[in-house]
Records
---
Amino acid sequence: MTNFAELDALKARLDALRPLPQAALRNLHDELVLRWTYHSNAIEGNTLTLMETKVVLEGITVGGKLMREHFEAINHRDAILYVEDVVRRAEPLSEWQIRNLHRLILKQIDDDNAGVYRQLNVTIAGARHVPPDMLLVPEQMAALMHWIDHEATALHPVERAARLHMDFVKIHPFVDGNGRTARLLLNLELLKAGFPAVVLPVERRLAYYEALDKAHVEGNVADFVTLVTQCVREGFAPYWHVLGV
C-alpha cells in the first residue's frame, strides 16, 4: 500500500509556514477554483477551455458554447465555496451535505434530479462495473456515512478521501453529476485534514477511469489510491511557487 510519510512531511513543511500571507492565499484560491472547475468539468465532457472557464467565472458569456456549459462552471465554483464553508464550520459529513452539493452542481441544468437519489437503474458507459439497483441506493449511502464516521477514521486522510470518492462513485447515487460530486467529496476530506485540495487533470482521465473500474470490479484499490496520492503531492507545488520556497 502507498507510503503516506512523504505527504505528511510535505504537509508539515507547509504547516510550518502558516499563517500564509493573505495576498498569497487569495492568489492560490483563485487559481485553485479555476483549475479544479476546468478539469473536473472537462473530465465530464465540458468543452470550455481553461481561459473560457476563467471568463465565465468572471460573468462573461462565451459565444458558441452551450448555456449548460456556462452553468456547469458557475455551479462548480459555488459547490467549491460550499465545501470550503463546510470545512470552516468543521461539520461532519452527512447525506444532507452531499445532496446540497449535488443540488448546486445541477442547478438550472436539471432541477428535477438535483439533490435527488436516482429512481432508475443506470450503467456507466465503457465501465465493467454496474452500479447497484436503485432500491439499494439509500441503504448503501447510509452504510457509506456509517463507514466514514467509524472505520474510516483509522485510515490515513489521503486514503480515506480516495476511498470515499471510490465508494461514492461505485454507488452512483444520482442520475448525473456523480463524478463532480465525488471529486468535491475527495477534496472535502483532504481539506478537513489540512491537506491542499487536489486537481485530477483531464489529461489523466483514462488512468482515472481505469483505476476506478479496477477498484469497483476487482476490489483492487491500489491504483486509485496511488493516483490520488500523486495528485496530492502535486497539490503542494502551487504553494511552494507562490511562497517562493
---
Amino acid sequence: MGSTTKEYRPSEKEPFMNERQREYFKRKLEAWKEEILEESRSTIASLQQDTVAEADLADRATTETDRTLELRTRDRQRKLISKIDEALRRIEDGSYGYCEETGEPIALSRLEARPIATLSLEAQERHERRERVHRDD
C-alpha cells in the first residue's frame, strides 16, 4: 500500500464512505489527534517551567495571563480530541460522513476541511440560524 495512500484523495466518483475513504479519514483524524497531543505535551512542559516563583509583580501578571491562555487552549484541545474520538467511533460503526440531522452524505470537501463535521453544510447553517434567532430573544 505504502505511498499510494499519500496521493489518495477521496473523490465524488467512488462509492461514498467506501473502505478506502473510511481508512483515509481515519488516518487523517489520527494524525490530527497526534498533532494536538504533541502540542498539549509542550504546553504542559512550558506550564511546569513557568512555575518558577516570579519575584516581579509585572512578570507574575504576565505569567498568569499566559497560564490562563494556555489552560484555555488545553480545554479547547481536550474538546477537539473528544470530537476526534467520536468521529473515529463513527468510522467504526459506519455512521461517519453522514449528517446527524438528515442522514444525507456530508460533502467530501466539507469533511476534508473539517473531518469532525457531523452536520451537512445546509443543516449546519440551519442550526446556526436557529441559534442566532434564539440569542436575539
---
Amino acid sequence: MKGIATFTALAAVAAFAVSAPAKAQEIRYSLWAQPGEAQYDGAVEFKRVVEEGSKGRLKVALYPGDQLGTPRELFAQLAVNTTQISASGDPGLKEIEYLALPYLMKGIKNYVAFMDTPYGQKLNEKLTKERRLRILGFMPRNPRQISANKVINTMADLKGLKLRSPERDYYVKSLAALGANPTPMAFGEVYTGLQTGIVDGQENPIETIYAQKFYEVQKCIAMVDYIDKPAYVVISEQFWSSLSADDQKLLQRANDASNAVIVAAMPKQQEQYIKEMKAAGITFTYPDKKEFVAATQSVRDELGLKSWGKEAYAEIVKIGQQDF
C-alpha cells in the first residue's frame, strides 16, 4: 500500500510538472518619458503587442522616468542583459547620434530610411561589436525649441543669451552658431538653473518643457525646430540573439505599433501643452527658420564630414531632406 501511495504521489507531481505553464520571460524596458506623455503611451502599446503576440510567453516591465539610470548606466546593463531595452537620446555610437545635427533630418522617417541603407546597417553592426547592443528602432519626439526670458523673433535676439545645453558637442556648437552662449549642464539641474538665473534659457521638445515645468521659470518659447531628433530604441544584443526569428519580428512590429500611437498623439498633445502654457503666461514666437538653417551649416559640415566622410555625408544630407 505504501508503495502504491508513493507511486501515486510521484505521478501527481509529474503530471503537475507537465501541465504547469512555463514562466514568462521578462523584458525590462527603460525610457525617460513619464506617464501622461505620448512616448510613455507608445511604450504601453509596445508592451501590449509583445505580450498578446507571444501569448504571454514574453512580459514587458516598463520603467519610466529613467528609473534604471542614465543612458551610460543602461548601456552597461544592456551589455550583460540585466535590462533588455532602453529608449533615450543616446544611441551609444557618435556616428548614429550625429544624425541629429541641426536641420539635417526632417523627421523620424528619414532616420529609418538611413538606418535601412548598407551604411546604416554597417553602423548598427559597429554598435553591436563595440557595445553589445543594437538599434531596434526609434521613438518619435517633437523637434527641439528654445525657451528664454525674452522674446525671440530672430537670431539677433539670441546673441549672448546663456542657454543650457546638453553635454554634447553638436548641441554646444549649434547654439554657439546661433549666437547664444551655450552652457553645458546636467538635465536634472536645468529647472534650478533657470530659476536662479544661472542660465537664461534652454532647449528641448515642447513635451519636455511642459512635463518638466520649465515654463514656470521662463517667459517665452521660440518655435525654431532646430534639431529634429527621435529617441533611439536600443536592445541588448545578448537578448536579441536569444530570440527566435518570429519573436524578433514581433518586437519590431511592436515598435512600429508604438510609433503609430505616438505619432497620432503628438500633434494634439503639443497643441494642448501650448494652450496650457499660453494660459500660464508664456509668449510663443515663430521665427523665420531660414537664417537658423544657414547659420548652422558650418556645424553640419564640420561634424558631418568628420564623422562620416565626404561621400557618406552627401548621401545622408540627401536622405535627410527627402519628403516621406
---
Amino acid sequence: MKDFETSTSILRISNQVVIPDHEIELNFIRAQGSGGQNVNKVSTAVHLRFDIRGSSLPAIYKERLVQHKDHHISAEGIIIIKAQRFRTQEKNREDARQRLLEIIQKAMVTRKKRKPTKPTRGSQRRRMEKKSKQGKQKALRRKVDY
C-alpha cells in the first residue's frame, strides 16, 4: 500500500533558488523497526525521489549535484532518500525534505584552493641542526674502538 503525495509548497534552497513541490516525488511506505501496533498498518516512512536533471534548478546546481559524491545520488542523477526516523508521516516528510536541502547545500560549498608553500629558511636550518645533533648523540652510543 503506497500513497502518493501532492502539495503546492516550495523548498527554499537560497534567496533566489527554490524547488517547487511538484518536482519532489514523495511515496509513503511502511517503516521498519519500532512502531507498536501501527507498524503493520500505517505507512509512515517517506521515500523521496528528486530528479536533478529534470528539475528547475540552475545549471550550476545541477552540474555540481551530479558530480557530488553522495550515496543518495544515483548514477542516473536521481536523489533517493528514505526517511523513517519518526513515527509520524509529517515528521518523516519534513526530515526527508530537510535532508534533501542539506545534500544540495553541501554540493554547492566550494572548497578553498590550497596554496603550496615552501618551508622557511629558519625551519630548514633548525631541522638540519636537530638532525646533526641527533647523529652526534647516536655516535656517542657506539662501541669505543681502541
